[in-house]
Amino acid sequence: MLEALHTVDWIQIGVLGLLFLLQFYWYVRYLAAPARRMRKESKYPIANDPSLVTEGVSVILCAHNERENLSNYLQSLLMQDYPTYEVIVVDDGSEDDTRAIVERYMVRDPRLHMTFVPYGARVGSTKKLALTLAAKAAQYDYLLLTDADCVPESNQWIRQMMKGFQPGIDIVLGFGPYFAEEGHINRLVRFDTLFNGLHYLGAAICKHPYMGVGRNLAYRKSLFFESGGFRHMMMNKSGDDDLFINHVATKTNTAVAVNPKAYTWSLTKHTFNEWWQQKRRHLSVSPNYKPVTKFRLTLEPLTRGLFYAAVLGIIIYQLSIVNCQLSITLLAAVALFLLRWIIQTAIINVSARRMGQKRFNMFSILWFDITLPLVNLWMLIVPRKYKWKNG
Fold first, then answer.
1. Which pLDDT score, from 0 to 100, does residue 96 have?
2. In terms of DSSP bridges, do strands 142-147 and 217-220 run parallel, antiparallel, or are they unpaired?
3. Is the pLDDT of residue 51 over 70?
4. I need a labelling partner for 72 at 20 to 30 A (CA). Which of 14, 87, 280, 347 fits?
5. What percent of the chain has a predicted confidence (pLDDT) above 70?
6. For residue 43, which phi and psi values (nearest 5 degrees)?
7. Are 25 and 17 in contact (CB under 8 A)?
């Protein structure tokens, strides 16, 4: 028989209920926002602004020893269904046949251009220098960034990204998922990328933009130079995408491109150590985010961790005082845990399906949901012994 609730029970249920509501609000408002936007756009497609169709676009990618990737993917950038654009490849100190591959394509397509980072340039990040050089060389005001190991979803990539540039918009955030392969590392990277993508896209949709990814990102050349470009972050090893967007994005100048035809796809890292170093490099610039961004990014994993801790604490406490019998508080804790798990799984997998990605089983979602914040925390607080390559 269930016992009556005491003051301590009400406190436990109240605290857990508050944490559940905070998590529920975050999931429904932010993580579900891209799927809602995709559903809305499927019913009411965004038409191309006639003035934008004639606007030229400069597609920029940096390449450091990218002979194989350029051989596989460069052609997809030159086959875009868009009237006026150029592709600029910046050779960032390659020691392989990168330059020869690009020159071979240049003979066949006059829209392809190449520049290079001066040998021995003494800067914290040669990639930021490479992007700056490309921006200066660009013919057009619209800059569309990607990486050498990325392939657009379709020949509509440029057109779909340009649809975001409505009046007053200077930045369009795209999404860069990873191909599904066998193995735990692939599932880990795909989940982490999808989760983070839903977060930054959803935040931008809700007028709180804070980052973008260099695999798929567009902004105006005029914005880049008027804001000082990478001048204030040249000594950071990373941050050419997320830290720059965090610096210049506002609630009124940023849009998102959620149509799957606007995605760029990449292959994941194949070992845990490779992913670990990549993830750690990306996280290294987060202390330089705006204070309001750091607060929002801390609030969600904090309430998530407190929710799990509260559920575990209530279960241990209740079982210890009622001699392993059921109680209303215990049942409430289990019910809220299961309800959050179901809502979380539904939002993530509905979003994955609409974004053309393979779905995740419930247990994988729960495992990654618990462990990834701990991994991120470890990366942020443990001294870094790995020396990143300049880029």
1. 87
2. antiparallel
3. no
4. 280
5. 91
6. -85, -35
7. no
pLDDT exceeds 90 at position 83: yes
pLDDT tens figures, 306-358: 999 999 999 888 888 766 556 888 899 999 999 999 999 999 999 999 999 99
Which tokens go with 3?
């016992």
For residue 95 the two structure tokens come to 């020691």
Question: Which three-class secondary structure string do you get for 3-28?
Answer: CCCCHHHHHHHHHHHHHHHHHHHHHH
d(CA 355, CA 242): 22
Quick check: 330 and 319 in contact, CB under 8 A? yes
CA dihedral angle for residue 24, residue 263, residue 59, residue 279, rounded to 10 degrees = 60
Whether 125 shows a pLDDT value over 80: the answer reads no
State the amino acid at position 251 in one-letter form.
K
pLDDT in tens, 292-311: 999 999 999 999 999 999 99
Q: Per this entry, what is the length of the chain? A: 391
Looking at 2.40.50.140, 3.40.50.300, 3.90.79.10, 3.90.550.10, the CATH number of the domain 42-284 comes to 3.90.550.10
Burial 47-80 (b: 16+ CB within 10 A, else e): eeeeeeeebebbbbbbbbebbebbeebbebbeeb
Q: Which helix (H) or strand (E) holds 102?
A: helix 98-108
Q: What span, in angstroms and rounded, lies between the C-alpha atoms of 187 and 330?
A: 33
List the domain boundaries for the chain: 9-31+293-380, 42-284
Average pLDDT, the chain: 89
Give every CB contact of residue 214 below 8 A, 6+ residues apart in sequence.
145, 146, 147, 240, 241
Global pTM value: 0.90
